[in-house]
Design a protein that fits this description.
Blueprint (H helix, E strand, L loop, with lengths): L3 E3 L4 H9 L5 E3 L14 H17 L7 E11 L2 E3 L5 H11 L3 E12 L2 E13 L4 H9 L20 E5 L2 H5 L3 H9 L8
Parallel strand pairs: 1-2, 1-3
Antiparallel strand pairs: 3-4, 3-5, 5-6, 6-7
Helix pairs in contact: 3-4
């Protein structure tokens, strides 16, 4: 099997790769700007950025290596929620999310040499109504500060999530089922 390269510094993506049995991989993070053309849908936006990251990562890899890139964004009513700038920004985002649903979209690109495949995954996340005291308590943990949308579903942020429609792992940053199906096109079989 060809060597796999994860072109992401995300500890969550690294953990998810290991969970599905990809234990041998290199990490090479390309230097890219996450800019995109105006007017794209959320799915088109994450797919576009994932492709851009993949093209930048290709320069760091050999043509034989299989490169995985991803980009995850949180959208509330089609407005992008990035990582909070500070605690006040985290409170603003979490207040807007509480008692409502939003979408988490991830674009994934798998590349080997000149061949590449890009797909996107969307998960609907429903937050329960929460008090300001609960949100402030969550922010005090520090967990929201490095996460898009100001929450981590794999940590204490799960206490704010009422339910999910779609891939749970997508909300963590890597839709592993979709990725496993994409890897089949490159000769990588994770089951059987």
């Amino acid at each position: 099997m060809a060597k796999i390269v994860l072109a992401s510094g995300s500890p969550r993506r690294q953990e998810l790769l290991r969970r599905i049995g990809v234990t041998e991989f290199d990490i090479r993070v390309p230097d890219t700007e996450e800019t995109y053309p105006a007017g794209l849908s959320p799915q088109e936006t994450v797919a576009y950025i994932s492709r851009e990251k993949s093209q930048a990562a290709a320069a760091l890899c050999t043509p034989e290596e299989i490169v995985i890139t991803a980009d995850t964004m949180v959208f509330l009513d089609d407005a992008r929620l990035g990582k909070p700038a500070d605690e006040a920004d985290a409170l603003r985002m979490l207040t807007a999310l509480q008692g409502r649903s939003h979408t988490v979209c991830t674009g994934v690109t798998v590349r080997q040499g000149d061949r590449s495949l890009t797909e996107s995954e969307t998960t609907r996340v429903y937050f329960r109504p929460a008090t300001q005291a609960e949100l402030l308590s969550y922010i005090a943990t520090g967990e929201p500060m490095d996460k898009a949308g100001a929450y981590g579903v794999q940590g204490k942020g799960a206490l704010l999530v009422e339910r999910l429609d779609g891939d749970f792992f997508n909300v963590m940053g890597l839709p592993v089922l979709r990725l496993s199906q994409m890897l089949l096109h490159f000769g990588v079989r994770l089951l059987g």
